[in-house]
Amino acid sequence: MTDIGRDDPAGAAAEFLAEGGVFVPQFVLRTYRALGLSDEEFVLLLQIAGFRLAEGNPFPTPDEIGTRMGIGPDRVAGLIGDLIRRGFLAIDERIDPETGVRSEAYRWTGWYEQAAAHAAAHEPSGGAAARPSSPERREPPRGAAVPAEDGRAAELFAVFEREFGRPLSPMELETISAWLDQDRYPEELIRFALKEAVFAGKLSFRYIDRILLEWSRNRITSEEEARLRARQFRGRA
Q1: 97-142, pLDDT tens digit by residue?
Q2: Which domains does the chain have, with CATH numbers?
């Protein structure tokens, strides 16, 4: 009997199928365009799911994703940042209780939640194809962050990238989005916190976050108030 291997198309297919894959519910396939996702964004989300589910890599780099998609890492980082802002993608941070090692993982449940909500609202019962309708963005679930205006966030991303002298990581993009959407820090306050970090020679997101948290505890809500607080602090130093 002849061995069936990769030289045989059927054998090769069976071998590759054994690697596993990604299950995509039909309602996700039906609704992604109605949710405003481009084909490129859709494929990127599938690639992220594939890395995690089939290859055990929960946090692929922009380089790894870009190689699969034939696009540059900067483009990948930009797409990921936009998907995070719109609630389709999130980054979970985990700490191993035994080793204390910190790690990150992508989570795309927000995408499935938006797809399910759209299908429930716009499709007949029984899972039939959606009725033609103009694309619209649904209201986020109760308790979810309200996405910042894309232009406002994009400007902040650009400012931070200029100061850091490099493209921001997906985790850093999500941090800025969280400052705007969840913590509700005014944009001018975030910009001034960045300036303070540069002035102090401590240019890191953790340091900037501490500055913003300290201002929040002292009910500082404007750049003018923050500037006065900084002068008082330096006067005591």
Answers
A1: 888 888 889 999 889 888 888 888 887 754 444 444 433 444 443 3
A2: 22-122 (1.10.10.10), 150-236 (1.10.10.630)
